[in-house]
Amino acid sequence: MDRGNRLGDIEITDPKVMRALAHPVRLAILERLQRHGPATATQLAPHVGATPSVTSWHLRHLAGFELVRDAEPGTDRRERRWEAAARGFRFEVPEDEDGRSAARVLSREMFAHSAELPHRWVAETEPELSPEWRRLAGLANTRVVVSAEELAAIEDAIEGVLAPYVTRDPAKRPSGARGVRLLRYHLPESTEVQTGEAE
To answer: Residue 112: in which H helix or E strand, if any?
Structure first.
């Protein structure tokens, strides 16, 4: 099934790009630019755990793989501003061993990068939410028994629901709208795991 790319993500297929992105500072830089828009290395540095000069080096490295690019100059035209090349990125595990290895390294780094988000949310964000938003927050841990084609169809359906909200013009967002992080993991189990009824 061709799932398409309705979210406007960069499609990463080159193992070299996967390995370049599989670095905690680079992932943090890209995420920050995607969520908060253009910034300089100095503005990014406190949020990505690196000095401005190290951040600048990582930005140039990301630019070499076309993951970030120059943004319109800000008020201080002497400072170089950067922006993400797209809202998000995606990759599929290649068939060759080098590609599989690179995808594994990037996946591992992405899991590590996201692992602390729920803990930080519970400690810092949830206590400040209104009752309305607190009721809507939550998590689910659902197990299904499906074929590879059915799993692809599930992911396609989820993206179909999300796409209008992801790609919507910011000027058309309703009043009271706020950012919501949706963490989606699709983790096929080992063939040794019982594939009968969901537990």
So the answer is: helix 97-115
Domain layout of the chain by residue ranges: 1-115, 125-168+177-199
Task: Tell me if 30 sits within 8 A of 189, measured CB to CB.
Answer: no
Kindly indicate whether the domain formed by 1-115 is annotated with CATH number 3.90.940.20.
Answer: no
Best CA proximity match to 113, nearest among 42, 25, 43: 25
Q: How many CB atoms lie within 10 A of CB 180?
A: 9
* H or E segment and range at residue 39: strand 39-40
pLDDT 10s digits, 104-159: 999 999 999 888 888 889 999 999 999 999 999 988 889 999 999 999 999 999 99
Tokens at 57, concatenated: 């080096």
User: What Cα–Cα distance (Å) separates residue 156 from each residue in 1, 2, 97, 113?
Assistant: 9, 9, 27, 25
Instruction: Report if pTM > 0.70.
Output: yes
How many other CB atoms sit within 10 Å of the CB of residue 95? 7
pLDDT tens for 68-98 read 999 987 666 678 999 999 988 888 888 899 9
